């Protein structure tokens, strides 16, 4: 994250509770975090594909209602369900990506280059005989596990840190360029979880071309990216057959509320309540549990094991 940096973070694991976490960085570091034993959560009565798209570093109030910089995103709000009280967990980014996939907001240092051995959604999906892929824009190659290659940023791809992926070439092969998504849609081979990682120019982290520009231009680029891929996702059989497309932001730009600030989160899909707006407070562990439920898993990692299923957004 470019606006808020810290090596020692106050991390609200449950709203109203907090503790300090420190995390070092380096290529040889390994993180194994104690987590709650996953509890049975029940499977969705009609599981389908979950498409998750994570954008970067924008306040809720700058996104929702901003039809000048983000006309396409705002045009989708009446067709889906909006979480109006959704908050990221921490600053900087990497802890939020980990909460979205492991249910634990560590490591907490964007320069971390080690291995994360915590339970995670990839492990859960593989154990259940289900499938996942990361579709990463501008990644150098299939299965790439190395560092940043601008505009690709590794810290926006949490799966690239998991021991399950690093130690298993067949799992690493599930990290593919975003250009593979249209092929998988056409072939009907979209996995149960499609985790989409835009590059740093398209997710709003950097100005296009890594130049200085107004924040409005970053948002326009993000909106254009959504317009370039969302229609094909929503026209796909994977989406139409009980699928759901979720777009969220990793953290706010300047807000510290509940740890990571208020961010926009929108659900789209055939089972999503059209025009619905929730006022319930949610964080990334809730979205992780929703991913587990909607893909038909019977358990969820970390704090997601006791989080909300976000069922109010669905018919």
Set out the fold topology.
Elements: E1 8-11, E2 19-22, E3 30-31, E4 50-55, H1 60-63, H2 71-76, E5 81-83, E6 86-87, H3 93-102, E7 115-116, H4 121-127, E8 132-136, H5 163-166, H6 169-172, E9 175-177, H7 180-187, E10 193-197, H8 215-234, H9 237-240, E11 244-249, E12 265-268, E13 276-278, E14 282-283, H10 284-294
Helix pairs in contact: 3-10
Structure notes:
- This protein is of the alpha/beta class and 315 residues long.
- It has one domain (8-27, 39-313): Alkaline Phosphatase, subunit A, CATH 3.40.720.
- Helix content is 25%, strand content 16%.
- Strands 9-8-10-4-11-12-5-13 form an eight-stranded mixed β-sheet. A two-stranded antiparallel ribbon has the order 1-2. Strands 3-7 form a two-stranded parallel sheet.
- The longest helix has 20 residues, at 215-234.
- The radius of gyration is 18 Å and the shape is globular.
List keywords for this structure.
10 helices, eight-stranded mixed β-sheet, Alkaline Phosphatase, subunit A, 16% strand, 315 residues, two-stranded antiparallel ribbon, disordered N terminus, alpha/beta, 25% helix
Provide a brief overview of the structure:
This protein is an alpha/beta fold and 315 residues long.
**Helical element count?**
10
Supply the number of structural domains: 1
Class by helix and strand content? alpha/beta
Mean pLDDT: 89
Give the strand tally.
14
For the biggest β-sheet, the strand order reads 9-8-10-4-11-12-5-13
For the sheet with most strands, the description reads: 8 strands, mixed
Give the SSE string. EEEEHHEEHEHEHHEHEHHEEEEH
Shape: globular
